[in-house]
Amino acid sequence: MPQELRVLVAVAETGGFSAAAARLGLTQSAVSHSVRGSEAKLGAVLFERGRTGASPTPAGERAVGHARRILRLYEVMGVEARAAARGSGSGRDELAGVLRIAAFRSAALHLLPPALERLTARHPGIRPEVRVVRELGAGAAGEVAAGRADLGIATLGGSQDVEPGLLTGVLVEEAYALVHPAGHPDPKALPLLDWDENCGSYTRAWWRAQDWIPRATVKAEDDAMVLTMVGRGLGMAIMPELSLREATDAVGITGLGPGRPVRQVGYVTTPESAATLSVRALIRELRSVKA
What number is the average pLDDT over the span 159-187? Predict the structure, then answer.
């Protein structure tokens, strides 16, 4: 069974049966036979075959995500069993192994480091691998669903729903603020700066009710670029608190009042990963981080 799953993942990641065979040290016919067997068992076509290679169908994407997650459980099972054996004399498990994390940029900069610092101080055997992903489309939650991350840090409650079956928990509720050049006499008169990942979907009703907010005339690559442009006097922006941790003295921050928009930032994981010792330990540390 594990080998069948490895074949599915390899075909999806390499884009073809020949490349998957080379990666796994198998023949192309063995890879083809394995994929056909998986398709027969599941009752679905998993890959579109063509002259340029093979690409997963929607059913294949789902199957490959489950395959990665199952293979990851095999890895964790071995790591935790060995850790329990090493710690049997001391009465505690010695956590060890790779812990894969996906997070959007400002969360990776400001939420993760203190949590990982404490986690690795308590469990030096844990090796965090952090991937920064854009919070667009599937985002960090999609990395978890696809089996590429054990835990994701994502914005919750927006228009992009978390895939059913994943577990979530809120870590931070952060308010938006008006960000403008420091000392500007009328910041609301400035052009609006924005970036693709800004979570307008979480605050859409609030935005619609504000007749002073113009359409964005400048789009930046990310929130750090927006802050730099605001500090240069090029406009104003509406940004969440995590993005403002990097604000300089050139940037002024004004509250938006009691009806201000608020977004939730939280963790996303799978039920099976949530039961592992390393992920449970990381969630404990994340919950202890002061927003």
Answer: 88
What pLDDT score does 168 carry?
A: 95
Compute the C-alpha angle 45/50/55, nearest 5°: 55
269/247 same-domain check: no
pTM above 0.90, yes or no: no
Q: How many domains does the chain have?
A: 3
Residue 139 has pLDDT above 60, yes or no: yes
Contact 101, 151 (CB under 8 A): yes
Q: How confident is the model at residue 250 (pLDDT cuts 50, 70, 90)?
A: very high
CA atoms within 13 A on the CB side of 7: 24
248 and 130 belong to one structural domain? no
Confirm if 71 and 2 have CB atoms less than 8 A apart. yes
Q: Are residues 277 and 147 in the same domain?
A: yes
Which CA distances in Å does 15 have to 19, 46, 207?
7, 13, 42
* Eight-state DSSP code of residue 236: B
Distance between CA atoms of residues 259 and 237, nearest Å: 17
Residue 196's domain comprises 174-258
**Residue 126 main-chain phi, psi, to 5 deg:** -80, 135
User: Domain boundary residue among 90, 118, 153?
Assistant: 90
Residue 218 pairs in a beta bridge with: 193
- Give the per-residue pLDDT at 259: 84
Name which of 255, 115, 236 is nearest 172 in CA terms: 115
Q: Are residues 26 and 134 in the same domain?
A: no
Decide the pairing of beta strands 251-255 and 193-195: unpaired
Q: How far apart are CA 287 and CA 94, in angstroms?
A: 21
The answer to whether the CB of 57 falls within 8 A of the CB of 48 is yes
If pLDDT is split at 50, 70 and 90, which confidence band does 218 have?
confident
| Domain limit, last residue, from 40, 69, 90 | 90
Q: Are residues 73 and 128 in the same domain?
A: no
